[in-house]
Design brief:
This protein has 42 residues and is mainly α. The chain is built from one helix and no strands.
């Protein structure tokens, strides 16, 4: 019985981790435009 609870808990935590990482990686891909004042002039 303990083994089954551990397997279910592991599956639930893995699913939560997948959702968190998926939402975090989409935030990393979002790159807002840098204002002209902050850009280097060449």
């Amino acid at each position: 019985m303990k083994h089954r609870i551990a397997v279910v808990a592991s599956s639930v935590l893995a699913a939560i981790a997948t959702v968190v990482m998926t939402s975090a990686s989409s935030a990393l891909l979002y790159r807002p435009q840098v204002p002209a004042e902050l850009q280097r002039k060449q």
